[in-house]
Fold these 2 entries.
Entry 1:
Amino acid sequence: MGEFDLIARFFTRPVRRAALGVGDDCALLAPAPGMQLAVSSDMLVEGRHFFAGVDPAALGHKALAVNLSDLAACGARPLAFTLALALPRVDEPWLEAFARGLLALADEHGCELVGGDTTQGPLNICITIFGEVPAGQALLRSGAQAGHDIYVSGTPGEARLALDALRGQLHLPAATLARLRPRLERPTPRVALGLALRGLATSAIDVSDGLLGDLGHVLKASGVGADIDAFATTDLLASSACHESATGQIDQNTLLQCALAGGDDYELAFSAAPAQRGAVQAAAAASGTPVTRIGRITQEPGLRLLDRAGQALQGRFASFDHFA
Amino acid sequence: MGEFDLIARFFTRPVRRAALGVGDDCALLAPAPGMQLAVSSDMLVEGRHFFAGVDPAALGHKALAVNLSDLAACGARPLAFTLALALPRVDEPWLEAFARGLLALADEHGCELVGGDTTQGPLNICITIFGEVPAGQALLRSGAQAGHDIYVSGTPGEARLALDALRGQLHLPAATLARLRPRLERPTPRVALGLALRGLATSAIDVSDGLLGDLGHVLKASGVGADIDAFATTDLLASSACHESATGQIDQNTLLQCALAGGDDYELAFSAAPAQRGAVQAAAAASGTPVTRIGRITQEPGLRLLDRAGQALQGRFASFDHFA
């Protein structure tokens, strides 16, 4: 099966929203008047971003989910994407499952595959995604202001707990792993929340590399610092991770590490003025996405982790400072 | 050096035409009113699209050139691009040279790097490019009509001759190889010609996989066939390849193969009405790009190669028929 048959068979579908889709030198997109196009690219490499042998349907889902998450963090509505795929060989069942997982999530978000490239090579998936956002309304990293609240969606750390359990570095009850594993393999991009936060959040980022590290990018772009309640997210994670068991089986340090620096969460971290607390919770409820207030933007630069008493957390967690 | 330092150091430059460039979750593009956005992705893999150890500046040039060529084939004006890069290791001199080659060509075309991704993995370069074209004016593969002339720009086959010489499969005088090698390693995307052909060409494609194979895509998309003068491009190639030597040193079959199916040309093949012959040559002259008339679109499907007498070419070249 040649390159062109492969595209036609697995990835070509009728054009819906684009002016022209797969099968010419370029796809043609026409953003609505007054709209800016939000664009993001992510590349996933076997062994680095996913295990060799991972379920191809889950991989198709995740490859698009991480890109949708970037649109969510800008408050952009998904429009279309391109897919470039390097494959060691043409494996039809694998491609069929990959396309199924990919296109199911695409359909869920009305996001159309408009073009791409396939080639022979070590397995590599590169998606570039396009969304629309009204000019001037995109959520940026640079808008955080001193005094604003800091929030995060969902329960950061669940994906990392699942990863550590799958790697054999941590024991989880089978039922807990079964519940957390989709957080790693089939993350839910927070697109609806991102749209609901337009005009409300003053900055936003998606949490892909770990909550504190990604917050550090916001602080740097905004020229501010932050006080973070270390236990706000850790308590959420503890409650999630110990759901199937009466006694907590994971030590507090592991929970802190996973919640604050786990990575692969694809949650949104954002700031908003304290006067908007009710509006933020209403946006969260309207989009069906739980959000938790985890700290406060400060004029003083740097990122400080606070314990339950509001005192600076000592010891190994001081090392998180280097992200700020 | 981490991912973020690498982007900042080698690839971040002040935003010019985009609303927002490198360094947020998404870049923001705002096409001008009435414009459609032309989008194309190409992935280049070591060992498949370029030799291991190729000059990184030439590789940076070529990675963008093949994408610009897709915009050219749609008659789109380059606007911006994203770069996703998998690298086995952070090699600063390599990255510096790659960025230099890439950004020099980008500057030449006013095409801005607005975002991307870097990761550790087998060397893989994925560029997604964006161009603007007035709504309804894009050059498509589907517009060829029976009776229209078929043209190609430049001299298809030069890149393949250089490739075969570098692989040791063909002898070329050193001066000839030195002249042809940049056609392989630093192709010139025909952006100016593509713009000049708006409203003039009835179909277009960029020649990346070989002239006849790519023409086959146009014929299929347009529901037509073609008679191709096999020697129109072959004579051009012979004249180019034998420029440094009084006697031709390359046999006719090799020249035919390279000219008609060599690949890696990044020339434009296009159709236009016979009444436009003067206008096509004027567009070619205005864009500084030679074009040659090589055949005619037919109602009868299939692609026929004709000899100098206008008779069907017999023998091994009949095999080109399968492209149609």
Entry 2:
Amino acid sequence: MPPRYTPLVDSLPATVPFIGPETLERERGAGFDARLGANESVFGPSPKVLEAMRAADAEIWKYGDSTSYDLRHALAEHHRVAPENILVGEGIDGLLGYVVRLVVAPGDRVVTSSGAYPTFNYHVNGHGGVLDFLAYRDDREDLPALVARATDTGAKLVYLANPDNPMGGYWSGAEIAAALDDLGDGTLMVLDEAYAETAPEDAALPLPVTDERVIRMRTFSKAYGLAGARIGYALGAAPLIRAFEKIRNHFGMNRSAQAGALAALADPQHLAWVIDSVARSRDEIARIAAGNGLTPLPSATNFVAVDLGGDGDLARAMVTELGARGVFVRMPFVAPQDRCIRISCGTEADMRVLDEALPPALAAAREKVAG
Amino acid sequence: MPPRYTPLVDSLPATVPFIGPETLERERGAGFDARLGANESVFGPSPKVLEAMRAADAEIWKYGDSTSYDLRHALAEHHRVAPENILVGEGIDGLLGYVVRLVVAPGDRVVTSSGAYPTFNYHVNGHGGVLDFLAYRDDREDLPALVARATDTGAKLVYLANPDNPMGGYWSGAEIAAALDDLGDGTLMVLDEAYAETAPEDAALPLPVTDERVIRMRTFSKAYGLAGARIGYALGAAPLIRAFEKIRNHFGMNRSAQAGALAALADPQHLAWVIDSVARSRDEIARIAAGNGLTPLPSATNFVAVDLGGDGDLARAMVTELGARGVFVRMPFVAPQDRCIRISCGTEADMRVLDEALPPALAAAREKVAG
């Protein structure tokens, strides 16, 4: 007899928010020439990070520091907050799971946007929450509508990615702060700032970290080039940060990753170089797109959404055709955003691969959809 | 206004199953000379593991393979099971959290031993389960009593560590298989085999992996020397393994850790050397203990429980006094096992530090307790 799963677990599908590129490569029987689908940072981490991780590997037989003391204190200094306002965790994915678990019981309402980060939805479903989806507006998450809906329904959480994934736009921090003034008591905004480092300065939230209405999620997976290391952190009011101690996996951090993140934070020159490289690649993606009659959307992130001028079928075909030509990209899940494909920034070599693959892929995709 | 936590979370204390050695070192103001308290493997991983992790670090900007395909297939071959019988996860701690979440809803009963692994209890509490604690018997978890209690109460889970932590003993696999025949339908045994590699051959469970009554937990944290890398795996029936896909953090694995574990599995020579080193260190700990009039308990693990012949107060004083002399050890939490301290195996240098520190620490501890 199988184990007796909880009723909630029985009701859940076995699912995965994303198919990983390795799985696609195995299906394809070959590696990708340009890995531009997961918004990773092909520019990699600082060489000092690699050095620090290598040095730390000599002590990989030791469990990591369960309090991430050094990293937490360095992050506190970096953000000019107290260490009590920071929780280090296993990537934003892990932290989103924790925050959902803290507040969402079966039947509790959560507001997000249709087409926003699916891993957040996965966690909400996994804890029995009831998701309320709002449409994007002008290719951005509709901040005022999200806040209004959360307030009207007494939602426990409202999710906003700023800058946005998958479309790349952003709200100014001042606009978000103003919107929070309309948020009902006891609704927590989960502000996913995974792409904060590549965003314009005015995207920063001008509120003290002690503000209990919002928790901000940051990561070393994007601009810091450490997606495979699994290090994120949350910034929030001390009582909320302390609540994670009730449920988090205390010894969940990789020890060398802790050392790597610390070194990453200590090398702002590398970060500046990455941000500059990302900006140049965004321009290059836009140039390639425009050269093929396509419309690149403005981006505050390390990727560019490119409007193919068709519908989801065309974009899906395009993802397949680019993949067949060695270029891994992804696309928004929901109409009308699914008229776009999402291309992560890459090296000059990646851009050459894209430049070459895009015209024939587009022709093939159009033919497939027309046929 | 703070977020509205779930009633369950409101009822939980902010806690941590273990204080990490780094925290103790900070409190002490100095590092430990011998780190023998967390049952880590001071013998470290294979040099080939370090090489593999270093090579993988060059691609640390990529997320890890969400399916841990290569590692899962290598583990399947290693255990002569199908890949569908294996789940790779973020250490046994992470996997215990997942299995509890799969089956334990608020109010569900779970049986374990008083003084057994506290992180398992932490997860059960964290999901609202009701823990039923049974006493150890002859310094082992009382297998027949655990099975009987789980059966009588219709518990969802029953936990057994084999070999046992913190006492070091074990049940034969045949005894466990026989006990499972008495287990009530729909109770799942969580068999924590963290120390399997250092155990005698007859500790192995002689049951097919398709047996739905048990899930086995393994780790690279102990004999493989990779505690800081956070890689464990579960062995079980395919439908149970598949159920984890509903709730696990799919992209939770560190990419270099995946590569390191794969290399560890490919170097049985190093593992054999570690097992031999552990056996010699167990003998040395026993010799040191006996030389001080103390009683080492037989161990199937990478640590030795040493009976101080007193009570919990003496053992607590001894942990403190050894710590003050640069030796980090831990001790069982519950009487009468808390008459012991638990010393992890170490290098010859570690053993010399222990040999030197133990007599004065023991004298000081006895004086403190007598005073």
